[in-house]
Structures are given as structure tokens and as C-alpha cells.
Amino acid sequence: MRKVFQAELHQVGEELIEISSLVTEAIEKANQAFTGADVELAQEVIAADARIDFLQNDLDERAIDILALQGPVASDLRMIVGSLRMSASLERMGDLARHVAQLARLRFPAKVIPASLTATFDELATLDIQISRQITELLESRELGLVTDIQSANARINELHRSVFGAISAPDWSETPSTTVDVTLASRYFERFGDHGVSVARKVSYLVTGQWQPESFTN
Amino acid sequence: MRKVFQAELHQVGEELIEISSLVTEAIEKANQAFTGADVELAQEVIAADARIDFLQNDLDERAIDILALQGPVASDLRMIVGSLRMSASLERMGDLARHVAQLARLRFPAKVIPASLTATFDELATLDIQISRQITELLESRELGLVTDIQSANARINELHRSVFGAISAPDWSETPSTTVDVTLASRYFERFGDHGVSVARKVSYLVTGQWQPESFTN
Lengths: 219, 219
Description:
The structure is a homodimer of 219-residue chains.
Chain A: H1 2-36, H2 39-70, H3 74-107, H4 118-141, H5 145-169, H6 177-209
Family (chains A, B): Belongs to the PhoU family.
Function (chains A, B): Plays a role in the regulation of phosphate uptake.
Keywords (chains A, B): Cytoplasm, Phosphate transport, Transport
């Protein structure tokens, strides 16, 4: 019985890692579609999001079955409840990657981001991709040094996000209102992605240490 | 034992209602601060969000204790897991009300929204407030007719949200880029608020019927 239970817990952990890998793939491809105005790739990301949603539901049902049938306590219980919450954050990160891809599709064949902000958005995307990869690694290794890396990356994302608004408010901003909207939304999607990443990282940290780390940022 | 357990479940339900009431108060006041450029009221909403966060944590801990100590099954288990998820959505709605208040504070003494969009934003806010009130009512009464009302209100919100982008893209849009950013973000906050409201409503519906209603919208 105990062995079956451990196998089931392990399965939940594996599914979380699978979802996290799919989210990484989604944000990588979404960014390629976004920077390269690649409508087919955008379409692929949009379609693939259904798989992430499916896996999230599957994981959640599995977790609830474990709660019902095994009545886990202490750290096992924390692990199950934590998984339910992490899956929700990961699913939302998948949605945000889809939103980025949808912007690419909407503006095709034009690019969403004006040349003056390309470098900023490249860095935003690179940081989101880094966070997403590190979450997978963190879920696999439980190496808590990664949590700090993820938080630092997110702090930099917040700076970049603010700098985007600075650029838009500057006197030399000469883009159309539509572009201003797209830039605002895209920046917000990348920024939210990082926040959800931090939220997953903090949950892993909580599972490992049993200590709830206070939030060091507001959003 | 059974009696204690029922009292604890009831307590979780009550706390959910309390959070929902605070969220309603937050979105009502945030909107007043937002439309009236009332910086003190904005400040009040921003400060009050900590109470919502505290109550969410408290509810979550209580729910996890019930899972650990009572090992609920079937509909009781569903109710506990559902509460954890609803509290997360309500907490997020509180954050969004805070974001609206933060925009009001940022632009004070100016108003955030230009006169041409006042009516649209009034309607957005009215619908968000309606949704928030109806969620409290739904949590109290489990009257599923309210779910349909909430979904209809959200469909209208999505229309209005799209119309904001239409207004910004129109040739006669002559606002500053900063205003364009504020309008974009504010519209997004009101729109996300409605989505989270639908998400809570669908969870209540699931708890009552045991049937998971497929999502009828994408965001």
C-alpha cells in the first residue's frame, strides 16, 4: 500500500515536470513567433496550449484521488496541495505564452514590437525562458539555489517592464496607438509569466523547507 | 467528531464569503477612486488588500488542516479542494482591484480615463461589481441561476474590453501614449477580474452539480 502511494506521489511529480517542460517549449516558440513574425509557429503554440490544460486537469484529478483514497498527512499532504497550486500557476504560464503567440498572429506579417524596443523584449523573453527552464530543473532537483536565481531574474523582468512604460512615455515615442497597446500587453504578459514562475519556485521552496518565505515583491 | 467536522467545513464556507465581500468592497472603492481621482480612497483600497491576502492564507491553512486531520472524501473533499481554488481566484480579484486603485493613485490629481471612454469604463466597473456581488450571493445561496448571470456579464465585459482597443486604434484617438498605456492596463484589469469571477462561479457550479462545465470562452 505504502509503495503504491509513493508511486502515485512520484507520478504527480513527474506530471508537474512534464507540464513545466511544455510551458518552456511554449514560451520559447511563442517568443520565436513573436520576434520573427512567424504565424505558423504562433498557431502551433496556440494549439499546443490545449495539451497543457489537459495535463493540468489530469494532474489535479490524480491529486484529488490521492487525497480521497490515501488520506496523506504531513509532508505528503503538503506535496499534494502544493502540486495543485503549482499546476494552476504553470497552466497560467502556458496561457501567457499563448497570449504572446496570439499577438504575433494578430499583427502578422508585421512584427509586434518596434525596433527601438527589440533589445528590451529579447531580454524579457530570455529571462522568461530561463525562469521556465529553471523551474523544470528545480522540480527535478529541488536545488533551492535555483529559487534565488528565479527571483533575481524576475526582479530584472520587473525593471524591464517598468522601462517599457518609460520608453512609451518619453517625448520621442512616435508609434501608433495600436502599437502602444500591443507593447503594453506584451510587456505585461512577459512580466506576469515571471511572477507565476516565482510563485512556483516559492512553493517548491516551501515543500522542501516547510518554511513559507514572505513575498518580497508586489505586483 | 462528525459535528466538529461539519462545523469546520461551514467555517471554511463562511471565510470564503467574507473574502468575497471584501473583494466587492475593494472593487467598489477602487472604481470610485478611479473615476473620482480620489487618492485617499485609492490608498485605502491598496492598504486593505493585505487583509484579503491574510484571510486567504488563513482559509488555506484551515482547509489543509481539515484535509490532514479529517481525511474528507467525496463531496466534502471536493468542497475543500474547491475552496482552495476559489480563495486563490478571489485573492487575485483583490489584487486586480488594488491595481485599479494604484492607477488612480499614480495619475492623481488627473483622471486615468479620458472623457471619451468614461461610459465604457463605467459599464466595465458596474459589471465587475455586479459579478463580485453575485459571487458572494452564489456562495451563500448556491443558486445556480447566478452562474449564468455572471457568465453573461463577463461576455459583455469581453465585448467592452475589445471596444476599448477599437477606440484606441481609431483615427480620432488623440490621447498621449501614457494614457494609452493606462487605458490598456485598466481595461485588462477589469477584464481579468470578470474572468476570475467566472472561474469562481464555475467552481461553485461544479461543487453543486458534480459536473464540470466546459469553458465557453478563451482569454
